[in-house]
Specification:
Layout: H1 3-27, E1 36-40, H2 44-61, E2 65-69, H3 72-80, E3 86-91, H4 96-103, E4 107-110, E5 120-125, H5 126-130, E6 158-159, E7 162-170, H6 176-187, E8 194-198, H7 202-215, E9 220-224, H8 228-232, E10 235-237, H9 245-253, E11 268-273, H10 274-279, H11 281-289, H12 294-306, H13 311-321, H14 323-326, H15 332-342, H16 357-365, H17 374-413, H18 416-431, H19 434-449, H20 453-483, H21 485-500, H22 503-514, H23 518-542, H24 546-554, H25 559-588, H26 590-594, H27 601-611, H28 614-639, H29 648-653
Parallel strand pairs: 1-2, 7-8, 7-9
Antiparallel strand pairs: 3-11, 4-11, 5-9, 5-10, 6-7
Length: 654
């Protein structure tokens, strides 16, 4: 009897000691119990693939997961440091950061996630070469086959900003393909025939292609697969010279003597940090089997774009509709767990019979109806583009050729030293402070010393024109609103919407209607910048002393004389404050405007953001700050009444 308690005690001790180990083994089955952090990149195919991988890891392998969004360069740097564990879509040969990390053994690239690789190249719409009888479009370039034919067709793809050249729509600034295309244009000698136009963002590039295609217009652009537009539209690829690996490497890196080559058919893979791959060989085995068919992935991306579904919702739909695809990637046990989580326990269950628990929860337990205006707005916008796109483009061409380009060319034609003297003279006239005049001119000289003079002038020209147009529109509207209570009541909510609506919301509609470049940037800037001028003009006129107006009426002034000689001069400080605010808000839009192809300082800031080039972004940002300070101080000085401005001659008399 004495041995039994000792045996029970020993068994209890063993059980107590092994329980933590067992629990630890269970929780550590995936990544040692630590959350798996996946990068969520900002294009559709990567977001979709990332969420598919996350759901399979969570349901099939019991992993704790976390999605971390970010720009490409930042995400890749985090992967190298093991701050992130997985990037679900990496293009081979595209990222110097990843290539260097692979050589150092810090990153492993696994699998081939797209059958036959990702196709990329230069494209035109199919109807440009072959026509489209259903839409009544005749082939405008039937002999366009290779890049050697492009000089003959430059007038077909004319650049609105430089009609003597064609326009080639390149990748956004900072993307690897932007440098690749630029070097190919240089190598083929096409820079004299085509403007190398950067779209600003991938969404802007897609919008420009869609707008041209829906209107049946010619357009020359770079594009890639997988992408939704590849499933939506029919494109004709421009032939390049035969692929040569050595030449392609020189084109991508820019190192060595450039030689011609076709685009690499890039391999898409999963990139994992080396420590994570070492800890989780079973997950690496899953990544090696992960693969999509191009047509299927293109359709998923297209539906994701058109229905405005996010990556998570689209991944859930894919898993329910295509179990035959993802079950081939997973071991039997993991596949069964995913099927159970999705409500598809039996492999023979059809996708239609699988219950959509998220949809049921929303429909049954939610208190909100399922309303959406997105589809209606999209249909109306596309109808407007097809019906009136030509009219909007005529307006765009008029604004560009008659207003924007003449002002920009005039300012670029002025020698920098003369421009600096004019700025100094203007600032002295406004402030009557010689030190301030010299300081402002010196600051602008510093911008030129940083190699940003031309971009500064481009930005200043856009700000100047948008401010002038805002004044032409805003001051008369403010004058009328000051006299009409009904108009003020109508304008107030409209101006509230114009000031509070995020500029990104109306960038794409403006882009679809007016195309890429300076004109949509001008309209977007005016929408954002004109409300304070209207408000302050109305406020200034309504605050004019009624006794002064009665006295003027007693002297028999007309309504025009009352406006021009009494109320406007008295309201001038308020109106000038409105002009100052409008100018500052127009300048604040330059970075946003660069996202739809407007060149200038904002382009460098955007490129710095997309490539983590801190120096480039900081230089351009500092130049914008300098320009803002100079404009602000001069307009503020002119806004003060003359009696409040310092006068050196009066100071001497004292």
């Amino acid at each position: 009897m004495g041995k039994l308690p000792r045996v029970l005690a020993l068994a209890s001790i063993c059980l107590v000691c092994t329980l933590p180990l067992t629990a630890k083994g269970q929780t550590a089955s995936c990544n040692d119990g630590q959350p798996v952090r996946l990068a969520d990149l900002n294009w559709e195919s990567a977001s979709f693939t990332t969420h598919v991988v996350r759901k399979l890891l969570a349901s099939g392998y019991g992993c704790a997961t976390e999605i971390v969004p970010g720009a490409s360069a930042a995400i890749e740097s985090a992967l190298v440091q093991d701050d992130l564990q997985i990037i679900a879509e990496i293009w081979s040969g595209r990222s110097p950061i990843i290539e260097e990390a692979i050589e150092q053994g810090k990153v492993e690239v696994v699998g081939d996630t797209l059958t036959d690789g990702a196709e990329q190249g230069w494209y035109v719409p199919h109807y440009v070469v072959h026509g489209d009888p259903e839409r009544g479009i005749e082939a405008s370039a039937p002999d366009l086959r290779s890049w050697r034919d492009l000089p003959r067709y430059k007038s077909l793809f004319a650049d609105p900003e430089d009609p003597g050249k064609g326009r080639f729509l390149n990748c956004p600034s900072g993307w690897v393909c932007e440098n690749t295309n630029s070097r190919l244009l240089q190598l083929h000698g096409l820079e004299n025939d085509y403007t190398n136009f950067r779209a600003g963002t991938g969404a802007a590039l897609d919008a420009a292609i869609s707008s041209a295609y829906d209107r049946g217009r010619p357009i020359l652009f770079y594009y890639w697969q997988p992408a939704g537009l590849m499933a939506k539209y029919k494109f004709h690829k421009i032939e390049q010279d035969p692929f040569d690996k050595a030449c392609w490497d020189t084109i991508v890196t820019g190192q060595g003597e450039l030689c011609s080559s076709d685009f690499l058919r890039a391999q898409l893979s999963v990139a994992a940090s080396a420590p994570f791959a070492e800890r989780n060989p079973e997950l690496v085995a899953f990544f090696e089997k992960l693969q999509f068919e191009p047509a299927l992935l293109n359709r998923m991306i297209l539906e994701m774009t058109e229905t405005r579904k996010n990556g998570e919702a689209m991944a859930d739909q894919f898993l329910r509709e295509h179990p035959d695809v993802w079950r081939a990637w997973l071991p039997t046990a993991a596949s069964a767990r995913v099927s159970s989580a999705l409500g598809m326990i039996e492999p023979s269950d059809s996708p239609a019979s699988a219950p959509d628990t998220a949809a049921e929860a929303t429909a049954g337990g939610g208190i909100f109806p399922d309303w959406s205006a997105a589809a209606f707005v999209n249909r109306q916008l596309m109808g407007m583009v097809k019906e009136y796109g030509g009219v909007f483009r005529q307006v765009s061409d008029f604004m560009l050729t008659r207003l924007l380009l003449p002002v920009e060319r005039l300012m670029l034609a002025i020698p920098p030293w003369i421009f600096l003297l004019l700025v100094g003279a203007l600032s002295w006239h406004a402030t009557r402070k010689p030190v301030a005049a010299v300081l402002y001119a010196a600051c602008l000289y510093l911008v030129g010393a940083l190699g940003l003079w031309d971009k500064l002038i481009q930005t200043f020209a856009l700000v100047l024109v948008s401010t002038l147009v805002s004044i032409v529109l805003g001051v008369p509207i403010g004058i009328i609103a000051a006299r009409s209570r009904i108009l003020r009541r109508i304008l107030t909510p409209v101006l509230d919407i114009m000031q509070t609506l995020p500029s990104f919301v109306y960038l794409i509609p403006v882009l679809m209607l007016f195309g890429l470049g300076k004109v949509p940037a001008l309209f977007a800037t005016i929408i954002y910048a004109v409300p304070p001028l209207i408000r302050l003009t109305t406020l200034g006129l309504r605050q004019v002393d009624p006794d002064v107006m009665e006295a003027a009426q007693a002297f028999g002034v007309t309504r025009w004389q009352m406006l021009t000689r009494v109320t406007l001069p008295l309201a001038r400080p308020s109106i000038m404050a409105g002009i100052n605010q409008t100018t500052m808000m127009a300048l604040a839009m330059v970075v946003v405007a660069s996202m739809i192809g407007a060149r200038g300082l904002g382009e460098d800031v955007l490129a710095g953001i997309q490539t983590l080039d801190v120096g480039r972004g900081l230089q351009a940002g500092a130049a914008i700050v300098i320009l803002a300070i100079v404009i602000d101080r001069i307009t503020q000085a002119y806004g003060r009444p003359r009696r409040q401005r310092p006068d050196p001659s009066r100071e001497k008399l004292r």
